[in-house]
Design a protein that fits this description.
Layout lengths: L1 H34 L20 H6 L2 H34 L3 H16 L2 H15 L5 H25 L3 H9 L4 H30 L2 H6 L7 H10 L4 H50 L5
Helix pairs in contact: 1-11, 3-4, 3-6, 3-8, 4-6, 6-8, 7-8, 8-11
Length: 293
């Protein structure tokens, strides 16, 4: 009884500590959302909630500079998602199935290195590289700057899916006369598609929300939304900035929720196809078995 009572006290204490941590982490986010509806005083944000209004949302969206930066962020994020998905998928497959062990270990080490290197170090390195190479900053250098980390994320997600692939389905396709490309397109790709879609959406989200690398690589004509928000906040708190941050938060949550839904939907489709393939394969094996009619 004493042991059970002591364990219950321990579980309760851990629960309260976890709750306190989550409150500490999410309280600033909730504060931003709440004060995005604050009336403020003379267009300035106040420490006290002076009244409810939704006026700041249409005013923020009516800002031409804001709309331009949102467009730049969207274009960069889409380009980063496409580039990272293609290269990350190839990297994830090669890490697991590359013929050279040295190549597999090298790629795996590079991927983990990209994940653990501080973003500020990567940003400074990219800026110095572009300067020494004489490359003018703009949209495509910014896309290249966002891609290393997102590529590593996609590679890790795809790698975990490749490890879980059943070699028997590929062997069955080869036995039925399918070539390497046909096997990849009809057997491997449908199983990798959920991981690729999840990686693409995460790459889009990470690029759209990135501040550190964008802060070093943007120009007066190519500026992303996080950089705009950072520069605006430094000049003083404004209710429309809170409204922009709240919209950005809602967009990010929506994209991440879509990632989960798409992943589950594609996983179910792939599972159904695999189940059908298993049944077909078992039937073929039975037909080819000795003594089969």
């Amino acid at each position: 009884m004493k042991a059970l009572r002591g364990r219950s006290w321990l579980n309760g204490g851990l629960g309260l500590w976890s709750l306190a941590v989550f409150v500490f982490l999410f309280a600033p986010i909730v504060t931003v959302v709440v004060f995005s509806f604050n009336r403020g005083v003379l267009g300035k944000q106040t420490a006290n909630f002076t009244g409810f209004t939704s006026h700041w949302y249409p005013e923020a969206w009516g800002n031409i500079a804001l709309r331009h930066d949102v467009g730049v962020s969207f274009k960069v994020a889409v380009a980063v998602a496409i580039l990272s998905t293609v290269l990350g998928t190839i990297t994830g497959i090669t890490i697991v199935r590359g013929r050279s062990r040295a190549l597999r270990l090298t790629l795996e080490g590079l991927v983990y290195l990209l994940l653990i290197v501080p973003e500020i170090v990567l940003a400074v390195s990219l800026l110095l590289f572009y300067t020494k190479a004489g490359i003018s900053l703009g949209m495509w250098p910014l896309v290249a700057g966002h891609s290393p980390f997102t590529l590593a994320v996609v590679a890790i997600i795809v790698r975990s899916r490749v490890v879980a692939l059943d070699p028997a389905t590929e062997a069955a396709a080869a036995d039925l006369g399918a070539g390497a490309w046909r096997t990849f397109w009809d057997v491997i790709f449908p199983q990798l598609r959920p991981a690729m879609l999840a990686g693409a959406i995460l790459a889009f989200t990470f690029s759209f929300d990135d501040l550190v690398i964008s802060l070093f690589l943007t120009t007066p004509t190519v500026t992303t939304l996080p950089v705009y928000l950072f520069g605006t906040v430094r000049l003083g708190a404004r209710p429309d900035v809170d409204a922009i941050a709240a919209m950005m938060l809602g967009f990010t949550i929506t994209v991440l929720a879509a990632t989960g839904l798409v992943y589950r939907w594609q996983a179910r489709r792939s599972g159904a196809r695999l189940a059908f393939a298993d049944v077909l394969g078992s039937g073929t094996e039975g037909a080819l078995a000795p003594g089969a009619p």
